[in-house]
Amino acid sequence: MKNEGSIEKQIRLRSLLETAAMELHYLMRCDTRLFVIPLTAEQIAELPDNDELAERVDAFVARFGRLQDTLGDKLLPTFLRVMEEIPGTVLDNLDRAEKLGLIKSADVWLALRKLRNRMIHEYVTDPDELLAALVTAHQHISMLAEMLANIRGYFLRRFQPDI
Amino acid sequence: MRLSAENTKTIRNIITAVLEQEVEIVLFGSRVDDLARGGDVDLLITLQQLPSNIAFTASLLSAKLTKALDGRSVDVLIRTPETPLKPIHEIALKTGLVL
Is A108 in the B-facing interface, judged by CB distances under 8 Å? Predict the structure, then answer.
């Protein structure tokens, strides 16, 4: 017998999987446009006068943040509940995700969250530092995509035959 | 200063392990104030050789330290003695405590 509310939890998980997939889609489109040619510190230094690039950077940072928050703060705890685990703090959940093989490193996941504050071009005045932060996020999109794919894989293997 | 000796040692160990060089660590902000409560842990690290990706290294240190200090928020700044001082650096060096 399933726990009371287990169907509701599965429906919520399914809906969050769809949301995260759309957020990843939009992040990837923005990522492709932003990094189509290698970004340079010179371009970053000209952001205040380059509306198009500044907006592209803003969109990238916002979409990266939205997807990471959906995955870490909503999808992961919901997934743990569906797996009949009890979610804990964000740190606990990320450690659990690492143990389950959903992400390679909880430390790097957390570091990416911290890094987001260093991608705000209004605050970060050093072009090299801002560039490094953006490129690092760009290089770690695969980590977000992997968590999404892994949770979807777990979910489908376990529940698809039932639904 | 409102950090236990054990936490101070943990901070030193993690930072040294990640950066693999001699560092000076200054604690500044509300944790230096004995009368304040709670608050973020603000650290300024001065070292000889900057990591290739300062932004990510500082973020990774924040993440590892946050975990080691039971979820307390930790902010990390990294500089060399040659880095031009930003206002935040000056405040840290003036009011902070070397760990």
Answer: yes
B79 touches chain A (CB under 8 A): no
Of B55, B58, B66, the CB nearest to A110: B66
Q: What is the pTM of this model?
A: 0.89
Q: What is the side-by-side strand order in the sheet with B23-28?
A: B74-79, B41-47, B23-28, B97-98
Helices (H) and strands (E) in chain A — how many of each?
A: 8, 0
Share of chain A above pLDDT 90, in %: 81
Residue A101 to residue B85: CA distance in whole angstroms: 42
Q: How many angstroms separate the CA atoms of A77 and A3, rounded?
A: 17
**Length of chain A in terms of residues written:** 163
Give A140's DSSP letter: T
**How many Cβ atoms from other residues are within 10 Å of residue A33's Cβ?**
12
